[in-house]
Amino acid sequence: MNTSFWKSGHAPTLFAAFLYFDLSFMVWYVLGPLAVQIATDLDLTAQQRGLMVATPILAGAVLRLLMGFLADRLSPKSAGLIGQIIVIVALFCAWQIGISSYEHALLLGLFLGFAGAAFAVALPLASQWYPPQHQGKAMGIAGAGNSGTVLAALFAPGLAALFGWQNVFGWALIPLLATLLIFALLAKNAPERPKPKALADYLKALGDRDSWWFMFFYSVTFGGFIGLASALPGYFNDQYGLSPVTAGYYTAACVCAGSLMRPLGGALADRIGGIRSLLMMYTLASLSIAAVGFNLESSAAALTLFVTAMLGLGAGNGAVFQLVPQRFRKEIGVMTGLIGMAGGIGGFLLAAGLGTIKQQTGDYQLGLWLFASLGVLAWFGLYGVKLRWRTTWGSAAVTAARV
Fold it and tell me: Domain check: are 104 and 227 in the same one?
């Protein structure tokens, strides 16, 4: 990365945005790795466990619009400080008062949604400092914060085994408070910020049929990534009898694969075209999920297939956002919010749906095959719009990017 990139923006703000995003995603996802221990202590059914881990995903999807509104009307830094304080207070209450019922767990999940909404703050905070030629690098660095899910999967089950899962919320406060201090000291709002978006802008964007296609495509890729990440600890425990700690390690491998592939997927899309890349990723993910749905006897084989699927979904996330700026150059802020919300809703439906199907049928087979079928539908949908996209806004006469 050349020196002109670092001189063109504000590196301390970029670092603060990454750190805020990373730690926020860590706590947004924390109920997933703790799901087995929480469900055991609170005597939850598979359906209740699925809804518990899915609640922060749905809350985060909806709250992205609120946090985006606050970032527009106040400033990205102010919105980030407000969001972090709300999450810290919620975790402190969960640690000190305790989570003693299913309803308490759902309530905590709602407040953790503010952590999931960090997407709507961290990316604009970083993006507004950098010129167009460096937007990809800046967004890639700030967006790498979704790797925080790996931290939760790696460490939360082990800490719960040592100190009890309620105390994990207390342990999480240490890095969160440090991040709040660093964010307050280092982050600065860009001197020139775009005009705040009105509600009418969102409604206008929804009137374009391509916006719905992108929302569907991202609900499968990102929804698949975060939905599986939340459901896999319970899956590995139910299906193979793995301990919560071992299930956490298995899940961390899957989440790490998906997180690392997001920027690489964007680079691949730049090289071969976003449509071709996304078609390949839907194929890879759908085949892998369909195969694991056959209830394989080997946990190692299932892990290999889930890692492969997450590689495809992670790269698919990058491919979607390689295409979006080509189609919606002037509406990128609005579309980022809407598409991000759709991804979260997809994740909620997958995580909650897998739990419900497990409860009703006794295993995950039908749920996994239904998700694989969604990937197939997305493939055909994308193939159906390919010619129109490549001959209109994606043609060589309109954009230099490969579509």
Answer: no
Work out how many domains the chain is built from and give that number: 2
CA torsion 172-315-2-120 (nearest 10°) is -50
Q: Based on the domain organization, do 210 and 284 belong to the same domain?
A: yes
Residue 3 has pLDDT above 70, yes or no: no
Give the range among 135-139, 198-202, 261-265 with minimum mean pLDDT: 135-139
Q: What token pair was written down for 254? A: 């899957």
Same-domain check for residues 32 and 140: yes
Q: Contact at 8 Å (CB) between 142 and 17?
A: yes
Q: Which amino acid belongs to residue 298?
A: S
The CB-side HSE value for 21 (13 A sphere, CA atoms) comes to 26
CA angle 58, 61, 63 (to 5 degrees): 105
Count of alpha carbons within 13 Å of 362, Cβ hemisphere only? 0
Residue 229 lies in a domain: yes
Boundary of a domain, candidates 137, 164, 188: 188
Q: Which domain holds residue 208?
A: 198-403
Decide if pLDDT at 319 tops 60. Answer: yes
As a dihedral over the C-alpha atoms of residue 249, residue 253, residue 258, residue 262, rounded to 10 degrees, the angle is 110
Same-domain check for residues 212 and 341: yes
What number is the average pLDDT over the span 216-225?
96
pTM of the model: 0.89
Query: What distance lies between CA 11 and its chain's CA centroid?
Result: 24
33 phi, psi to nearest 5 deg: -65, -25
Residue 5 has pLDDT above 80, yes or no: no
Q: Are residues 277 and 393 in the same domain?
A: yes
In sequence order, the 6+-apart residues with CB closer than 8 A to the CB of 64 are 116, 117, 119, 120, 337, 340, 341, 344
**For 363, which DSSP code?**
S
Assigned domain for 46 exists: yes
Domain-located, residue 1: no
Complete DSSP assignment for 231-283:
HHHHHHHHHH---HHHHHHHHHHHHHHHHHHHHHHHHHHHHH-HHHHHHHHHH
Same domain for 312 and 265: yes
Mean of the pLDDT values across residues 259-275? 86
Write the CATH number for 40.
1.20.1250.20
- Nearest CA among 126, 244, 115 for reference residue 179: 115
Give the separation between CA 38 and CA 234, rounded to whole angstroms. 11
